[in-house]
Amino acid sequence: MTILVTGATGNIGSEVVQYLLERKALIRGLVRDPKKATNLAQQGVELAIGDLSQPETLDAALQGIEKAFLVLPNLPNQVELECAFIDAAKQAGTQQIVKLSVMGAGELPSTFQKWHRQIEEHLEQSGIAWTHLRPNMLMQNMRWFAQTIAQSGSIYNCVGDTKISHVDARDVAAVAGVCLTEPGHENKSYILTGSQAITFNEIADIFAKALGRTVAYIDLPPADLKAARLANGEPEWYLDAELELFNCWKQGAGSAVTDTIATVTRHPATTYEEFAQYYAQTRGQDFFATVRG
Ligand SMILES: NC(=O)c1ccc[n+]([C@@H]2O[C@H](COP(=O)([O-])OP(=O)(O)OC[C@H]3O[C@@H](n4cnc5c(N)ncnc54)[C@H](OP(=O)(O)O)[C@@H]3O)[C@@H](O)[C@H]2O)c1
């Protein structure tokens, strides 16, 4: 059985590939640009060139695929593209799709949560067995703060002292890997969080300890955060959607803790301290080089 992994060069998809490789699964990675995936090919991943915005490229990629992992970044047409993938998978006879969704899908009034629920519903109605993975904010997002830590020893947000149960993308990927290789996860939704909810002040302290320098959390009014990030080149539609979510978080919507990662993977969820250590030692050279200046 070959498993198709979309987003194989991305945060979560690349970790799904690593998890499946370690378990000797046969993997086909969907990539737009094979030059970005030479390391995957070297590790034995079959590459399929495809783009979800060009559904005609998906037929060959889905040929003979029984199970697929579906992820796309947040794009203005994310719902349309993911639904087109589901339709192509149905046509190709795919039997299960593990869909990367988001915590709060179907519950929160924020844009990304509404989009993901629309895609989940399309998948549920397709007749394909589904597994919805709904992670909270990824610990890996902390790379976004490298520049401001380097410049001013600060991380910025607008969520006050609200607690968020950040989750490691590797743990999300491990749950996806189990759902793709073991039975019993069909037609289920999993909310995926870290083992504790912490504030941005606590995150600043964790990074200060890991880096051996002062790191402070600065809470900004939402409009000021938006203006700063707009000036940094981020698209307005994306910032507006994020601010909607941050507003929900301020009311406590990001603080729930579940034990799903430990239950499904049989390993405890990574703590923020463990993530900071791992990131420093393996993936974070660029981050920490920037931060140390
Ligand atoms: N970040 C968070 O805290 C968080 C938390 C919960 C849920 N989520 C959800 O996670 C998703 C993003 O996951 P991620 O962080 O793993 O994304 P990512 O790192 O941005 O990776 C996106 C992947 O999708 C590929 N891709 C982009 N456009 C494509 C297209 N048109 N056709 C085929 N492939 C395409 C990219 O390939 P290229 O290499 O070619 O660009 C890349 O491999 C979003 O839906 C978001 O709502 C995120």
UniProtKB/TrEMBL annotation:
Domain of life assignment: Bacteria
Secretion signal, residue range per the UniProt entry: none
SUPFAM superfamilies from the UniProt entry: NAD(P)-binding Rossmann-fold domains (SSF51735)
Segments forming domain NmrA-like: 2-227
Protein name per the record: SDR family oxidoreductase
